[in-house]
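Batch job 17 of 40 flagged for manual review because the log was empty.
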Amino acid sequence: MTSGAHYATTMKFNQASGPHALDFAATVARWRAGEAPTQENGEVCVVAVRGPKLHLLYREGGLMHGLWRSDAGRIHVTTLGRAHTFTPDGDGWRRATSPLPGIYTALWGADEDCVFGVGLHDTARWDGTAWRTEPSPGPMLAIHGASRDLVLGVGLRGLVARWDGAAWRALEPPCDDDLVAVHVAGDDDVWALDAKGTIYSGGLLGLRPVLATGKKLRAVARFQGAVWVAVDGEGLFRIELGALKLAKDTFKPVRLEARGELLCASPEAIVGTRDGAAFKGTVLKAAVAVIEPTAPLGA
């Protein structure tokens, strides 16, 4: 960020991870107001909810990052060339930082000792004590799994790759378009989205297109027997009778995570639901309140 006096900033939630809307970690992108956000003029702020309060854990220059939080509360954040682990410690968190070449913008974990990161170059894996890079079958944009040996990554030009517990292996691509999101509920219950608005379904033997929406789709998740889709700028939808049906448009999610609740990360709020009908969460104003008293990096 440009050096000088304190100045106004723009902030938006970016990613969120955790069991439910009152127990999660999130990242907030922050950049100088009136400018387009870039890796050079922005910073990422890591916040977490513990009890009724939102806490600021860390901030670093640059906007590219990945985030995943375990059920037990350990938070993993990857930034350009580094990995940060935040472990609950009394009333706060203990941070450990280690070098990690590259940038991994999507993380997913099976357990405390099995977390994956994917990006446009290598992949990375946390084994409970350290991050290690792994060869990648191609550039990946998203990752999800059902267990530590059933993990799928998707990416450029229809790439679908599986981690089988030992290595990444490319599967048959369902299309030539970039795949931007994936959700794995089981061997034969996989959902994916491409950059042109097509929804794919299938399993390890292959994905097939099931719905062409013509919309900009951001995320997909199976939760409580339904398949949920985040549509850019429109809201949260369900797939019903072969079509998208609007479930909620008071927030516009860009990320979905299905655990105890369906956790929805939108620029303006982190929202969760247990039944798809009642929603609760944390609005951006709460994050601004803990971040704004700190000057932007470089200010």
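Reviewer: the log was empty due to a logging misconfiguration, but the result itself is present. The chain is about 5% helix and 60% strand. Unflagging and moving on to job 18.
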